[in-house]
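Private note to self, pasted from the team thread so I don't lose it. Backbone tokens:
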């Protein structure tokens, strides 16, 4: 057993000889002959020039700016004294149309809230936090007309839709 171990050790040492192929040695010597490194000079440092801040007369960009209202609230001012409906407590983008219901010839949209409560709405109901009134209900969507204030404080209308969510 000792003879076999000694024989293996001698064979492994024989593999560690200095016989390096000549073509490899020649390639390593020739590979760097014509290469010369070039280092770009450092850029010239410009002297510091002071800057004088003269913008004290300009409006502060961090203060809220209010535009002057143009009139008496606009023609679309909502009834602020109207009793709120349950779906007006949710943002419109958090509501989902999940179905359609026909009862006694009347079409209702089935709306699901973020807390998984189901409501039915028909034209004339209000949804969303921007005084959104349901205008029309069809097989695939609920059309809503929202009343919002623009930057001047006037009330304007915008159209929105809730589309049927396939599951």
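Design output:
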């Amino acid at each position: 057993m000792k003879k076999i171990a000694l024989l293996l050790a001698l064979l492994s040492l024989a593999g560690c000889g200095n016989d390096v192929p000549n073509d490899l040695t020649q390639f390593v010597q020739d590979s760097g002959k014509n290469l010369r490194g070039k280092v770009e000079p450092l850029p010239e440092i410009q002297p510091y020039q002071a800057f004088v801040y003269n913008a004290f007369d300009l409006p502060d960009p961090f203060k809220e700016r209010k535009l002057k209202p143009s009139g008496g609230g606009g023609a679309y001012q909502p009834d602020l004294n109207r009793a709120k409906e349950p779906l007006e407590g949710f943002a419109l983008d958090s509501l989902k149309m999940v179905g359609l219901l026909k009862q006694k010839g009347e079409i209702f949209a089935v709306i699901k809230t973020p807390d998984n409560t189901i409501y039915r709405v028909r034209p004339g109901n209000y949804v969303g936090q921007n005084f959104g009134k349901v205008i029309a209900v069809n097989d695939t969507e609920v059309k809503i007309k929202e009343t919002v204030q623009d930057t001047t404080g006037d009330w304007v209308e915008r159209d929105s839709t809730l589309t049927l969510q396939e599951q």
